[in-house]
Specification:
- By secondary structure, this protein is α/β, with parallel strands linked by helices.
- It has two domains: about 1-165 and about 315-365, Quinone Oxidoreductase, Chain A, domain 1 (Alpha-Beta Complex); about 170-310, NAD(P)-binding Rossmann-like Domain (Rossmann fold), CATH 3.40.50.720.
- About 30% of the residues lie in helices and about 25% in strands.
- Strands 3, 5, 6, 9, 10, 17 and 18 form a seven-stranded mixed β-sheet that branches. A six-stranded parallel β-sheet has the order 13-12-11-14-15-16, sandwiched between helices. A five-stranded mixed β-sheet has the order 2-1-4-8-7, with no helix packed on it.
- Strand 12, helix 6 and strand 13 (about 235) form a beta-alpha-beta unit.
- Helix 4 crosses helix 5.
- The chain is globular, with a radius of gyration of 20 Å.
- It starts with a strand and ends with a strand.
- Keywords: Metal-binding, Oxidoreductase, Zinc.
- InterPro entries: ADH-like_C, ADH-like_N, ER, GroES-like_sf, NAD(P)-bd_dom_sf.
- This is Zinc-binding dehydrogenase.
- Pfam families: ADH_N, ADH_zinc_N.
Length: about 375
């Protein structure tokens, strides 16, 4: 099969012929229809997040099941199903998974995120000569990928199979932040700092959960206009406006109940904390490029009883079917968020534009191109 392989951060992604993978116990083989392009991949491409090389990236995917591995006798999945695959692939057996905390799955972090392997301690990807190739999540920047059945959900016919690729990360991560991290209540006020693929979905899901104010904060008017179209009640261009002053003016001098930070940079952390009211919750979601730190004013956090609650993905086995339902019901306008399509051969161009901040919402690798 063709795959976009990262061998050298100086050379970037290169399309190669590698072996088509095969599913093992508790896994399925998916013929990729589309793969979303995320900042997390970008950090690995640029060498800012350590990961074994060579590797195939791509961690939010849609496609058709073409083979089912052994050990799936109790699964309702079948060959021919169109599915979404989630980036956070719980093993289903560790103590965290037993508690329902798929987002804290130990083998996912220890084996997949550190070693590029699945849960038998081996990758499913190999070069034509047998060379081992690490996989970032399922490694979906390829024509086929293997996914544990714990992290796939069927897509109904009403869900677009190309744009639906972003359900497994951009939508799932947003849902986890709103539902699990913040537990947004009806009537609360929300700020969303950085309105890319994840931030755009936080806006929509916050509105669906009944947020009164949803304030989008970004640095370009084009992105802010798109955010307003998706349901933001107010917008702030932080390149030209003071975030704290603008947010407090909108909220009657109180600040927001919840501030989401969706990019992983110190300056966006500062904006999220500046927007927060006394007793508010700041939910950081974006991954930083390597080891980064953000400052927190200690006395203000303590005296004003503010909380910082990290949110990584969601609880895949429960939440992935839920976000598929949101997409199918058009509560989340996932199709509007996908603003660009690239072929597998041109994926490097898309990631370059993403690095330059020139992708609105989310781009996808479209295997039909």
């Amino acid at each position: 099969m063709k795959a976009s392989v990262l061998r050298d951060v100086e050379k970037g992604l290169q399309v190669e012929e590698i072996r088509t993978p095969r599913p093992r116990a508790g896994e399925v083989l998916v013929k990729v229809r589309a793969c979303g392009m995320c900042h997390s991949d970008l950090h690995v491409i640029h060498g800012k997040i350590a990961f074994p090389l060579p590797a195939v990236l791509g961690h939010e995917v849609s496609g058709e099941i073409v083979e089912i591995g052994p050990g799936n006798e109790h699964s309702t999945l079948k060959v021919g199903d169109m599915v979404a695959g989630a980036f956070l692939m719980p093993c289903g057996k560790c103590p965290a998974c037993a508690e329902g905390r798929d987002d804290l799955c130990g083998p996912f972090f220890d084996l997949n995120r550190l070693k590029g392997q699945l849960y038998d301690g081996q990758t499913r990807l190999f070069g034509l000569d047998g060379e081992e190739i690490a996989q970032y999540s399922m490694g979906a920047l390829a024509e086929y990928c293997v996914i544990p059945t714990t992290s796939v959900a069927p897509l109904p016919d009403s869900v677009d199979p190309i744009a639906g690729a972003i359900i497994g990360c951009a939508v799932l991560t947003a849902y986890g932040a709103v539902r699990r991290g913040a537990d947004v209540h009806h009537g609360e006020s929300v700020a969303v700092v950085a309105t890319g693929g994840v931030g755009s979905n936080i806006i929509q899901i916050s509105r669906a959960f009944g947020a009164k104010h949803v304030i989008a904060i970004d640095v370009t008017d084009e992105k802010l206009e798109a955010a307003r179209h998706l349901g933001a009640t107010h917008t702030i261009n932080s390149a030209v406006e003071d975030v704290r002053e603008a947010v407090f003016a909108i909220t009657g001098g109180r600040g927001v109940d919840v501030a989401f930070e969706a990019l992983g940079r110190p300056e966006t952390w500062d904006s999220a904390l500046a927007a927060l009211k006394d007793g508010g919750r700041m939910i950081p979601i974006g991954l930083g490029a390597g080891v980064q730190s953000a400052s927190v004013e200690i006395n203000r956090t303590v005296r004003r009883s503010q909380s910082i609650i990290g949110s990584y993905g969601a609880r895949t086995r429960h939440d992935l079917p839920a976000v598929v339902e949101l997409a199918a019901a058009n509560i989340v306008n996932y199709k509007e968020i996908v603003s660009a399509h690239y072929s597998l051969d041109n994926v490097g161009e898309g990631y370059d534009l993403l690095a330059e901040g020139k992708i609105r919402g989310r781009a996808v690798v479209d295997m039909t191109l």
